[in-house]
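re: the backbone from monday

yeah here it is again, tokenized this time
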């Protein structure tokens, strides 16, 4: 997937609110070299008091996450925000789709702020509503739409969640994807198919490794090819239609590095996120969500050796927090999430000081119709049994 279908915007200028990235950040930011940034952030947070609730995603920079009231993955943070109705402002240190989910789940009087509007998600950008609607129409033309249930990963825009809500679908997280898929396959009888958006790897790994489907049961829909690059016969034979999307960070990990690490660190245990490619997941010892990765390392015995395949900020934080264990990154190269890293200390200070001054900047506000339909899909997830409430 490329972003050739997205408008090219000069850094920091222009607006494309249908996209997860490339929107401007108005206002004058403090200099990154300002030695008083930490003190300014603390002062602003103290001045706002209970009026502000700061959320920090696990992949955020240390310089920002130190100010978070709670940390976690995307859905956990959105739920935490919803559980704080007294907070007038929710400052979400994460990316755009996360802030959208927080706005959907919080009260109408609460205002969600994203310190840098250009903090998006390349995976979420890979499934845009016109593309998904075109695929949906193609399935109708093939006489299959009535047996297809759309399931979207939390890492998707609000309008894709709303699409699923309108069309009998559901949202899932990396923890409850199996439960969500099982629910979906019960909705339309024995011929049910699932359209899984937007991460093909999570969909494939869940269907094949957790639910017993085969790789032959899966087809990949490429929105940039006529008919998705899939024949009607292949669609009819498939059980899982995977959207051609991926995480730019987790997609980098390879079995070559896994093999090299096993050769150099004989006792190493490979721990990866299910957004990783299928062959990497097959070669790993343990696979699970970000919360699962954190809890696994916390429970691991001293002296154990781990190679972790997820975003580098988190891996480095885990290594510092557990000096009694050997923790290495499952890649030879530095691999931060570039859009997560856009939330830096100058943007955070600017957003917080603006709130102190009575100016709400970078508010994320989902329109009522989209919010209504997206909430349907989110509520279906909340109503699922088992691991529905964890990311």
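seq for it, each position gets an aa:
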């Amino acid at each position: 997937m490329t972003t050739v279908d997205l408008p090219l915007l000069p850094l920091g200028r222009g607006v494309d609110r249908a996209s997860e990235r490339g929107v401007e950040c108005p206002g004058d930011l403090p200099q990154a070299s300002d030695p008083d940034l930490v003190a300014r952030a603390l002062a602003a947070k103290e001045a706002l008091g209970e009026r502000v609730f700061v959320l920090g995603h696990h992949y955020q920079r240390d310089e920002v996450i130190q100010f978070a009231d709670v940390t976690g993955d995307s859905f956990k943070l959105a739920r935490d925000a919803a559980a704080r109705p007294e907070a007038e402002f929710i400052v979400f240190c994460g990316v755009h789709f996360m802030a959208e989910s927080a706005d959907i789940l919080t009260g109408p009087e609460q205002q969600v702020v994203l310190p840098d509007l250009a903090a998006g998600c390349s995976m979420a950008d890979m499934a845009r509503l016109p593309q998904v609607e075109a695929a949906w129409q193609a399935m109708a033309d093939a006489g299959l739409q009535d047996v297809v249930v759309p399931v979207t990963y939390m890492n998707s825009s609000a309008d894709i969640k709303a699409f699923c809500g309108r069309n009998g679908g559901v949202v899932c997280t990396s923890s409850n994807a199996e439960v969500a898929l099982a629910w979906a396959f019960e909705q339309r009888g024995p011929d049910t198919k699932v359209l899984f958006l937007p991460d093909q790897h999570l969909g494939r790994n869940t269907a094949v490794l957790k639910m017993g489907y085969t790789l032959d049961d899966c087809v990949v829909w490429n929105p940039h090819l006529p008919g998705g690059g899939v024949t009607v016969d292949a669609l009819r034979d498939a059980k899982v239609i995977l959207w051609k999307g991926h995480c730019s960070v987790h997609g980098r990990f390879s079995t070559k590095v896994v093999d090299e690490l096993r050769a150099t660190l004989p006792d190493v245990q490979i721990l990866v996120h299910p957004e990783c490619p299928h062959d990497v997941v097959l070669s790993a010892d343990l696979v699970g969500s970000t919360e699962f990765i954190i809890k696994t390392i916390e429970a691991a015995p001293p002296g154990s050796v781990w190679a972790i395949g997820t975003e580098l900020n988190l891996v480095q934080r885990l290594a510092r927090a557990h000096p009694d264990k050997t923790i290495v990154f499952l890649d030879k190269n530095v691999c931060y999430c570039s859009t997560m890293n856009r939330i830096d200390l100058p943007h955070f200070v600017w957003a917080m000081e603006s709130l102190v001054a009575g100016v709400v900047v970078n508010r994320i506000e989902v329109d009522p119709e989209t919010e209504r339909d997206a909430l349907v899909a989110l509520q279906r997830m909340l109503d699922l049994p088992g691991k529905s409430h964890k990311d």
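The longest helix spans residues 368-382. The mean pLDDT is 88.
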